[in-house]
């Protein structure tokens, strides 16, 4: 807890001499630097001209209301303010929180309560930072119970189990983990699984796609910044390392970070310390780091595009997820697993792959790996015939396209066609119409029926008659 106070700059605005003195002494003994002032004006000047991590402000000051300093603190780097109210001043405390105070304490209080209050303030700041990160990156949390290992990932699973067993004993300062694999092989899913099954499961997991961080803002996003550190830094902000303190930080596409940021990440791993942009102080953080790359980092080190020292640090616990095309029969089993999950999502009961679709799953190379497979299933479930799911596009790529998707429509639809002398079967035309509509709707019978102005049962009936050779 005292780590929270170590090296922090704290302003105390309190007119009662003894209270101020006690607080200053307590904070300084805990390693913080304190500025104690007695009036509203002094408090206002200090907030406007000096940098503080926190301010402790008494409500009633001889020359003004301490609550009015909340606005000043907000305008000068959004410094968290803890309001000190007199006994019974609950209404005042409620007002203070409404006006943006980070927390409050009722006097008299034991200064040993102060670190607890600061821990609450920090937790609040972290959680609002995480909320804004999640909003910005549109983080969708995946179902951790949904990870399918299968026989191809059996060895991988037992390695992960060993890591988790060691973690259980270590508790803090967990070694970083590197996960490599082509895009869509499940690196993020594995990172989530590791977090959910590890010692920090009840703490935050912060997922960051480094490739999506704008280069000029990446450092501030990861490590935070002080007020005025750059043109748009109107307020100080904590970074994602700090937001993940006590929990897990997953840096996806780590190779997208610039060399200087790679160096900063290395320092964060080795020394468990970070420094905000524009700050002169280090902050200690305790983060379980998981990194991922879809290009082999060893290769990138050889090419000179990834720092060797960071690679060696990450290489200690490296896991490689094989592409889907190398997982043999697991591709079909994984497809069944994903289908079962999607059925729950879409509340569907009888969805199943058609026999030839199963063959396509086995034959296709899946360059987009599990993500591509998942998308194909989802698309077929929404657009196709759920009871006989088919991946129309993939079938075409494999040269095994459904007959109705091949042609450009029945011959009698071509310009210049006229009814031949030997006659023309309306029954055949109906079937060809149905096939055309099915081709247009990717095999979706409901949509095809809508296009043709008939009901789904009519289509089913006609196709069954055709299969029985009735036409
Ligand atoms: N083994 C698996 N079991 C169940 N679902 C999986 C598995 N692997 C991947 N998925 C699913 O596939 C999709 C892609 O996985 P994920 O995002 O983890 O891949 P990634 O390797 O991190 O991709 P990228 O390199 O693009 O970041 C996710 O929706 C995930 O739920």
Automatic annotation (TrEMBL):
GO terms for molecular function: ATP binding; sequence-specific DNA binding. The modification 4-aspartylphosphate is found at residue 58. Keywords: ATP-binding, DNA-binding, Nucleotide-binding, Phosphoprotein, Transcription, Transcription regulation. The keyword Nucleotidyltransferase does not apply. It comes from the Bacteria. Residues 153-382 form the Sigma-54 factor interaction domain. InterPro entries: AAA+_ATPase, AAA_lid_NorR, CheY-like_superfamily, Homeodomain-like_sf, HTH_Fis, P-loop_NTPase, Sig_transdc_resp-reg_receiver, Sigma_54_int. Residues 9-122 form the Response regulatory domain. It holds the Pfam family Sigma54_activat. GO terms for biological process: phosphorelay signal transduction system; regulation of DNA-templated transcription. This is Sigma-54-dependent Fis family transcriptional regulator. It comes from Pelagicoccus enzymogenes.
């Amino acid at each position: 807890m005292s780590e929270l106070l170590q090296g922090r700059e704290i302003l105390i605005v309190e007119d009662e001499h003894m209270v101020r003195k006690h607080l200053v002494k307590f904070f300084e003994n805990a390693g913080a630097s304190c500025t104690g002032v007695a009036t509203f004006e002094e408090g206002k000047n200090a907030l406007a001209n000096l940098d503080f991590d926190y301010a402790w402000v008494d409500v009633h000051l001889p020359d003004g209301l301490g609550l009015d300093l909340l606005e000043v603190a907000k305008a000068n780097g959004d410094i968290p303010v803890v309001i000190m109210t007199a006994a019974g001043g609950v209404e005042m405390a409620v007002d203070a929180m409404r006006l943006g105070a980070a927390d409050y304490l009722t006097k008299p209080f034991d200064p040993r309560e102060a670190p607890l209050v600061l821990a609450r303030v920090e937790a609040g700041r972290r959680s609002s930072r995480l909320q804004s990160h999640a909003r910005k990156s549109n983080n969708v949390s995946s179902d951790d119970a949904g990870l399918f290992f299968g026989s191809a990932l059996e060895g991988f699973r037992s390695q992960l189990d060993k890591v988790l067993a060691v973690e259980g004993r270590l508790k803090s300062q967990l070694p970083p983990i590197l996960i490599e694999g082509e895009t869509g092989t499940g690196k993020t899913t594995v990172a989530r699984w590791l977090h959910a099954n590890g010692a920090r499961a009840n703490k935050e997991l912060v997922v960051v796609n480094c490739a999506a961080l704008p280069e000029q803002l990446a450092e501030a996003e990861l490590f935070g910044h002080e007020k005025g550190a750059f043109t748009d830094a109107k307020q100080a902000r904590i970074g994602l390392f700090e937001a993940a303190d006590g929990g897990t930080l997953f840096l996806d596409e780590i190779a997208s970070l610039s060399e200087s940021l790679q160096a900063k990440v290395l320092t964060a791993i080795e020394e468990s310390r970070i420094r905000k942009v524009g700050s002169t102080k280090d902050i200690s953080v305790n983060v379980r780091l998981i990194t991922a790359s879809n290009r082999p980092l060893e290769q990138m080190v050889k090419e000179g595009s990834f720092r060797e020292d960071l690679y060696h640090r990450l290489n200690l616990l490296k896991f490689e997820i094989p592409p889907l095309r190398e997982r043999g029969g697991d591709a079909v089993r994984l497809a069944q697993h994903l289908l079962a999950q999607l059925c729950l999502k879409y509340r569907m009961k009888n969805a199943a792959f058609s026999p030839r679709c199963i063959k396509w799953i086995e034959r296709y190379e899946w360059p987009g790996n599990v993500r591509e497979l998942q998308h194909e299933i989802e698309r077929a479930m929404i657009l196709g015939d759920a009871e006989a799911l088919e991946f129309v596009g993939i079938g075409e790529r494999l040269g095994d396209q459904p007959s109705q998707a091949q042609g450009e429509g029945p011959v009698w639809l071509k310009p210049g066609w006229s009814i031949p002398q030997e006659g023309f079967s309306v029954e055949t035309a109906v079937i060809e119409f149905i096939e055309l509509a099915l081709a247009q709707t990717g095999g979706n019978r409901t949509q095809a029926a809508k296009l043709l102005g008939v009901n789904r049962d009519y289509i089913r009936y006609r196709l069954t008659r055709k299969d029985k050779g009735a036409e």
